[in-house]
Amino acid sequence: MMKIKKILYLxxxxxxxxxxxxxxxxxxxxxxxxxxxxxxxxxxxxxxxxLLDTIxxxxxxxxxxxxxxxxxxxxxxxxTSPGSISARASGKFPKSFLDMKLRRGMEIEYRYYIDLYSxxxxxxxxxxxxxxxxxxxxxxxxxK
Length: 144
Known about the structure:
Elements: H1 2-19, E1 26-29, E2 41-44, H2 49-58, E3 67-74, H3 85-89, E4 96-104, E5 107-116, H4 122-136
Parallel strand pairs: 2-3
Antiparallel strand pairs: 1-5, 3-4, 4-5
């Protein structure tokens, strides 16, 4: 009986820890990119005013810059594929994503991509841009 209780307790603990899994962004940086970057132009694929206001408060974008930050996202993702049933049932299926790409022409210089288990909001944009800022703008001992 004691062994069963231990197994149930361990299973419950693993379930709780599994549900509290942190989201992790995927970052890609072109090694040829000259750092720190001097400016960015903004291009948002969707016109969500809250997200636009948030990103414009975080940085002074320059329409004349040759580096373009493109922000795209999707909310309320629903997948009806039979293969995703177990992911949806365990709560591991993303509800939205945020994708920030810094391009020079068609070449991607930097990319921040994250799947989210809730809908993308201003705090997610702030977190993503903060990471971009640390990686590309606020460098210590940076090369020019």
